[in-house]
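tmp note - CBS domain-containing protein
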Amino acid sequence: MKHFELYEADQVDQLVRPENFQMIDGDSSAKLVFTDFTEHEPLVIDANSSAIAAERLMKQSHVRLMLVLNEHEVFVGVIAYEDLHPSEIIKKVANGFNRAELQVADMMRKRQDLKVFDYSDLTLMTVSNVLDVLKQFGHQHCLVVEREQHQIRGVISASDIARKLKMEVCIQSPTKFTELYLSSLHR
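out:
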C-alpha cells in the first residue's frame, strides 16, 4: 500500500477560482459568461413573498436577480434588486399600496414583458455580441430560454461579464422613446 502524507498549510494563502483559468475576451463564446441552470440551481422566490423581505434577502445574499414562481411553481416573472429600490416602493405607496403589504408580485417584471435570449442563438454568439444586445436594450440581466421546450435554461448578468473580463461594463436603461422604438422594431 502506498503511503500518503498531510502537509503543513502555512505557505498556502490563495484560492483557486474558475475565472483564474478562463481567459475570456470579447471574442470568447457567450456560453462562458452564461449561468446554466443545468449546472447551477436557479435563485427563486415566491410571488407572494413580502417585497421588503425580498429586498433584505437579496441584499444579504448579494443577489441582484431572482426568478419569481407562483404557488404552483410556475415561472411568472423576475425581480431585480433595483425593482425593490425605495423609490420604486414609494411609487407603489403613492398609487395606493400599503408598504407593509407589498409583495414580490407587485414589484416584479412580468414574464410577458421580458425579452430573452434563445439558447440556440447564444451558442453562436460571442461575449461582445451579448454585451451589445444588453446595452441596446439597457438590461443588466437577461434570461436564456429553450423556446421549443418552454424552459428557462439560464441567465446572463452584465456584472458577471464585467467581473470575468476584469473591466467595467456600463449598461444604461434606454429612454422611454428608445424603448418604444425598439419594441416596435421587434413586432
